[in-house]
């Protein structure tokens, strides 16, 4: 198990029967987001909730959720975040540059192939476009689905020789990507 969903680029997408909305997370969403995260990474959900709560309180971070249904029937079915990373002088020379980074895109198993990852990526890029002119992302080279998704949004490879503080990257297994955030991103509806 490599921690991400199997990818079949030839599989067809299935439109969602429910209305899907994307918005900034609320405190009430964090337990579900934590469960999504630990379904992929393992570990205690309680620790993830605490980290996510910190993300909600940090103006340099953003937590987005995708929801199926509406009102009382609304169900969180996807999660993605943005963090502001600052490369410090004491970091190794190969540390990723300072900037905003997309992190942790996870869609619940039963909701994959409905375009939810795209909606979450659009929302996170829209949020970041209000703060920066470019955005960063890193991914495992074996995760074809996520690499294809980000390529559609203009991400291009920068390097495969990098580190990121706190990320368990294995040398030669990941790629660092960057995309410009042009004027039209700032005008996307919220």
From TrEMBL:
InterPro entries attached to this UniProt entry: Acyl_CoA_acyltransferase, GNAT_dom
Domain N-acetyltransferase span(s) in chain numbering: 20-182
Pfam annotation, one family: Acetyltransf_1
The protein's name in its UniProt record: Ribosomal protein S18 acetylase RimI-like enzyme
Source organism of this protein record: Kribbella orskensis
């Amino acid at each position: 198990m490599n921690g991400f969903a199997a990818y079949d680029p030839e599989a067809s997408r299935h439109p969602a029967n429910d209305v899907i909305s994307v918005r900034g997370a609320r405190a009430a969403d964090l337990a579900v987001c934590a469960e999504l995260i630990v379904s992929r990474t393992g570990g205690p959900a309680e620790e993830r909730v605490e980290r996510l709560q910190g993300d909600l309180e940090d103006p340099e971070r953003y937590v987005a959720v995708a929801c199926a249904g509406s009102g009382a029937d609304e169900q969180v079915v996807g999660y993605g975040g943005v963090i502001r990373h600052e490369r410090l002088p004491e970091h190794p020379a190969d540390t990723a540059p300072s900037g905003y980074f997309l992190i942790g895109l996870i869609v619940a198993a039963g909701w994959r192939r409905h375009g939810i990852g795209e909606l979450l990526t659009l929302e996170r890029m829209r949020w970041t476009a209000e703060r920066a002119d470019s955005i960063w992302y890193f991914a495992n080279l074996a995760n074809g689905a996520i690499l294809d998704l980000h390529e559609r949004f203009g991400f291009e490879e920068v390097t495969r020789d990098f580190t990121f503080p706190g990320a368990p990257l294995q040398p030669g297994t990941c790629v660092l990507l960057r995309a410009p955030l042009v004027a039209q991103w700032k005008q996307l509806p919220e």
